Amino acid sequence: MTGLEKILNSITDDAKCAASEILENANKKAMDIKKEYELKIKEKLNEIANRTLTQSKNIIERAKSLAKTQKRNIMLETKQNMIKEMIEEAKNCLYRLPKDDYFVIILNMIEKFALPQRGDIVFSQKDKERLPKDFKQKIETMFINRSESLDISSETREIDGGFVLVYGAIEQNCSFNALFESSNDELSDLVNDILFDNKVTPSQLSMHLI
After folding, report:
1. Which range marks the domain in which residue 161 is found?
2. 198 lies in a domain?
3. What is the number of structural domains in the chain?
């Protein structure tokens, strides 16, 4: 082997050794980078998982809160509808009364709402046509030795039931609709207190009003 060949072989061996060292360092660096990125990825995945868990909990809590609110609103609406229906049924009970019972109620209302002066009482056409024959006499007997005095008017009004009291230019609407509307809050509170205890029937509720 010539001197040149020895020199070339030495350079080749050094190059191989250097290349092997470089490759080894590169592989080590690559492994370090891989571990570093694997750690970062793991940390990122944990971060995402924790954030997702927190978001999921928040979504669940909002859903529960929304469901609770919707349930409360549905229950409130149902309760209000039930109260409204019971009040309406109480009014209908008055319409369904037999004639004699109906005009007993009317006489009680007259005694309750009449003012201490002379006036007229106006009925619907339907009620005027079916007034008991002794109705006027019963009113006079009711107010004997009292300042209240009512004449049955020849006029009629388009009312659902009950009557209108007329004192000159002053009118007092005692129709069923007017009485129920003016006492709606009171009746709603009453029904709300007793509805689910079944303590009062619709007919008893109407008697409470008049």
Report:
1. 96-209
2. yes
3. 1
Q: Flag whether 176 is in a domain.
A: yes
CA distance 195 to 44: 59
54 φ, ψ (degrees, to nearest 5): -65, -45
**pLDDT (tens digit, 9 = 90+) per residue, 42-72?**
777 777 778 877 887 888 888 888 878 888 8
131 SS3 class: coil
Tell which residue, 158, 159, 191, has the closest CA to residue 178: 159
What CATH number corresponds to the domain at position 174? 3.30.2320.30
Q: Which two tokens stand for residue 90?
A: 């109480």
Is there a domain that residue 201 lies in? yes
Mean pLDDT of the chain: 82
Read off the pLDDT of each residue in 170-193 and give the average, rounded to a whole number. Answer: 86
Which CA distances in Å does 40 have to 11, 53, 54, 131?
A: 42, 19, 21, 95
> Is the four-CA dihedral 78, 83, 88, 93 of positive or negative sign?
positive
